[in-house]
């Protein structure tokens, strides 16, 4: 009897081994399957030009300038409706615009730059929409001087790398000022503005900061030029 019991125990263990091995294999497959699941996609970081003025701008004691009509900015040099932060490798392929995969503007760059221009121009004058100026042109009986119209085209807005470690934010803008008259438009001036600001880091954050600084500088230069043209 003793020998019979001793013989059964090894047989029971042997017969249960495949079942235990099968359970272990199943657990391993489950764990492997869990680890193979795709990770949640990372959301791109959204950038803009910053919060803008945080305090009331002191009153400019100089006489205010005549109102100006600001048309919506065109962006022939950028992908239509795109919000990607773009860069170029001038040392490799300067003709190719490349998007940062994990960086986006909160609005199309043309809208952000238009807002910066409106803020700068509005320091010394009323800034109207272009349609407002056109409406006044259809009502010459008012006897008021018609506002000048500023039209802008954004030709370049990118983080430009001249080497893997040296880069700058580059903004190129074509500005045109016309005078509205009951008989049509009269050209008052046209100029291309090109501004570069060095980037402090060779990544999207560095490019965004450089482009924001370049946009502020360009807005100041353009406002001064419009003032000269309008005299």
Helices and strands in order:
Blueprint: H1 2-36, E1 45-47, E2 68-70, E3 84-89, E4 93-105, H2 109-121, E5 127-129, H3 130-137, E6 148-161, E7 167-181, E8 184-198, H4 204-229
Parallel strand pairs: 1-4, 2-5, 2-6, 3-6
Antiparallel strand pairs: 3-4, 6-7, 7-8
Describe the protein in words.
By secondary structure, the chain is of the alpha/beta class. The protein is built from four helices and eight strands. The protein has helices at residues 2-36, 109-121, 130-137, 204-229; strands at residues 45-47, 68-70, 84-89, 93-105, 127-129, 148-161, 167-181, 184-198. A hairpin with a 5-residue loop joins strand 6 and strand 7 (167-181). Helix 2 packs across helix 4 (204-229). The model is unreliable at 1-21 (pLDDT under 50).
Largest sheet properties: 8 strands, mixed
Shape: elongated
Radius of gyration using CA atoms only: 32 Å
As a percent range, the share of strand residues is 25-35%
String of helices and strands: HEEEEHEHEEEH
Summed up, the helix count is: 4
Pick out the low-confidence regions. Answer: 1-21
Q: What fraction, in percent, of the residue positions are helical?
A: 25-40%
> Class by helix and strand content?
alpha/beta
Calculate the mean pLDDT score and round it.
82
Distance between the termini: 121 Å
The total beta strand count reads 8
């Amino acid at each position: 009897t003793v020998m019979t019991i001793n013989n059964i125990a090894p047989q029971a263990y042997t017969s249960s081994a495949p079942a235990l091995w099968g359970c272990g294999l199943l657990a391993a497959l489950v764990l492997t399957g869990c680890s193979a699941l795709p990770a949640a996609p990372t959301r791109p970081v959204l950038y803009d030009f910053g919060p803008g003025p945080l305090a009331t701008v002191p009153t400019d004691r100089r006489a205010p300038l005549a109102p100006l009509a600001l048309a919506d900015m065109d962006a022939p040099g950028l992908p239509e409706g795109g919000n990607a932060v773009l860069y170029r490798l001038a040392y490799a392929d300067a003709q190719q615009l490349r998007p940062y995969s994990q960086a986006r503007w909160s609005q199309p760059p043309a809208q952000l730059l238009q807002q910066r221009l409106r803020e700068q121009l509005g320091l010394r004058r009323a800034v109207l929409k272009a349609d407002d100026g056109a409406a006044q042109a259809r009502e010459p009986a008012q006897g008021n001087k018609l506002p000048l119209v500023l039209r802008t085209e954004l030709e370049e807005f990118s983080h430009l790398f001249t080497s893997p470690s040296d880069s700058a934010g580059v903004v190129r803008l074509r500005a045109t000022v016309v005078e509205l008259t009951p008989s049509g438009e009269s050209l008052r001036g046209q100029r291309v503005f090109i501004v570069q600001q060095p980037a402090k880091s060779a990544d999207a954050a560095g490019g965004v900061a450089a482009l924001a600084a370049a946009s502020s500088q360009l807005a100041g230069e353009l406002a001064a030029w419009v003032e000269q043209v309008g005299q």
